[in-house]
Amino acid sequence: MDPHQDFGAPPGDDGPVREVACDESGSDGENLTGGNTDVFAHAGVHVPAADAARALREIRDRIRSPATEYKATHLLREKHRAVLEWFLAPGGPLHGAARVHLTEKSYFVVDRLARVLLDDPGAAAGLYRSVREALGAEYWQRFLPGANQLLRTRNGAEPGSSVPLFFETLDELRRAYAGSDAGPALERLAAGRGRAEAYRAGLLDGPAVRIPVLNPLLPAIVATAAYWSGPERRPVRLVHDRQNLLTPERIAWIEETARRSGVALAELRLVVARDDPRVQLADFLAGIARKAAGDALRGNGDPELTALLRPYVDPASVWGDGRTAVALGLSVPNPSVRTGG
């Protein structure tokens, strides 16, 4: 079955260019291990503006909050559970017309570490599993923030200090876990010190406009465009909530990266979310997905909500945890596709 079949264009499609409204939830910039959330979600919604406006009115009529702008938190309140289920269920306003790309932040850090130190994005899944399972919670929580600090564009550290600090921790782990399942992976990472030095030097000497390796928003936008463009490479226009990160130079990078990947991204246009009901629906879906997936990751998920979310989850999501991958409809821990950065 074509994975795009049940998410084709609704009646009254928008001509040769498919227009998809987008928003995100869970953004902490490049602070992926010390932020407020452990999941980043980027949603795309393909519904006519008039239908989106009707859906918003229906949600307001059902919830009856005096808030000027509704957010996902309104739908996630227990007293509004029926509205949440209607929103996601077959027959609801998003059925057949939305997808959400999920990023497990800790796995994303390991994925980017594999790219920088090993020049091998395909190594991320095995690296994540072997190191996380062997180290245990205490050492994992030392390894992961150190990797995050090493890769951050601006990490507040003295120039030249990030690499020694990370490799001191890595050396300690190599000694402690020599002979364990994590041993070969840790040794392989240790051999990448030269690449780490070159990476940090490039950040100091590189161009003023940088593409942050650790920010999941940019590759998520490319992945969203790829999904809606589909195997037929239909031209897609993404209408996105304004973000400070999305400067004209970075938008140009996203568009060029998409084209190099064979994705027909015609345009990325920024709008004010409150002025576009389609973007507001995308905001709801992203917020719901981020909360549901994060709860599942921490072991206190809501099985019914996870099941309702499952049909919306993009199979190209960047996810490493096997247990929750199955619950979310992701068949295996899935390394991210090469989308630049």
Automatic annotation (TrEMBL):
The segments labelled Disordered in the record are: 1-34
Q: Please identify the protein, giving its name as recorded.
A: DUF3800 domain-containing protein
